[in-house]
Amino acid sequence: MPPTIRLPLRDGRLAPYAMRDPVAWSPPAGPIRSRVAYAAAHVVCDPLADRDPLSDARLDWEATLAYRGHLWSLGLAVADAMDTAQRGTGLGWNAARELIRRSVAEAQARGGVIACGAGTDQLAPAEGVTLSDVQRAYEEQVGFVEGQGGGARVILMASRALARAARGPDDYARVYGAILRQVARPVILHWLGDMFDPQLAGYWGTRDVDEAMNACLAIICEHRAKIDGIKVSLLDAEREIALRRRLPDGVRMYTGDDFNYERLILDDAGGRHSDALLGIFDAIAPAASAALQALDRGDVTTYHAALEPTVPLARHIFQAPTHAYKTGIVFLAYLNGHQGHFRMVGGAESWRSVPHLAELFRLADAAGLLADPDCAADRMRRVLALAGVE
Q1: Considering its fold, how many domains does the chain have in total?
Q2: For strand 187-192 and strand 153-156, is the pairing parallel, antiparallel, or unpaired?
Q3: With 104 labelled, which of 73, 75, 77, 216 sits at a CA distance of 20 to 30 A?
Q4: Among candidates 72, 122, 23, 138, which has minimal Cα distance to 285?
Q5: 381 in a domain, yes or no?
Q6: Residue-wise pLDDT tens digits, 341-375
Q7: What is the domain range of residue 267?
Q8: Is 18 part of a structural domain of the chain?
Q9: Which of these, 324, 291, 323, 320, lies nearest to 308 by C-alpha position?
Q10: Are 139 and 119 in contact (CB under 8 A)?
Q11: Number of helices and strands in the chain (H, E)
């Protein structure tokens, strides 16, 4: 029988919670076919490294790479060295470069599909950075990813440095055009909204989202042969659909909407859909895999049955402040035994409250995403005890 555990409520009271029987998710026989589905993967820090966790984090490579193997075993592709891996919130370019090198090699060994983030985060966050500096930084990182081979696709990440240096849409067109003319194979563009990163406010050269969409679309149309697709993370389903309808043929829309993915991945009335490049797929990988397997079979009922219960969990994990979602992703990996501790790069385990983590526990259980109830309950009790909740 699954255990019962006392969990805090938002008002601070403790209440018993009876866990459900675990769900036995079926692994796929092969890769997902009906959609391109990337899970943006988190990293596991080394809790015993005597380093400054804010500026010089060291990763537990065995656990980090094992988690990517877990995602590939479920038929998903891996998007690495991105926001979910704490790029810009503790994982710097030097560590990201080693992550990319090791993850691409692991993908080659396992036959996994991988794409890696290339940005400009080697630039110091200071005034005086020019568009030429931004271009050179992008060129360095794109060249590094492409130099790893193994079919690794580049994800051209949104750049804080470009957001600071650019004076309007023409500056974005200049920098992106220069990079896209050089890439060896089509890349995935990345539009990360300011709810994820306030330093990206006004991306594409304007704070008007509709004008920004036009500026972004102009770049895509001019360089369509060099663009596989665009990941849009605005948490605005209607704007994603509007942009999706305007994309040139052959350019994919990768939903990055961790609130509305269930709806956006399905075909709309016009027969269009979004593929997926999602941080939440790291946390809900077994259910996401089962849903997409059902979609491969044309079984929309089973698709909804697997994915719909994950939406309340996703909306909880990604609630404001949205950048703190990484804490929930790593916490769920800890509950499920994928890592032996709940410590994070940059001390990000402290970004969410204990009641928030308790509600995450309840929602993950309701979605069938606690694989071993006894293990999950034991680990939840450890976290509560550390917080003084007995």
Answers
A1: 1
A2: parallel
A3: 216
A4: 72
A5: no
A6: 999 999 999 999 999 999 999 999 999 999 999 99
A7: 27-308
A8: no
A9: 291
A10: no
A11: 15, 10
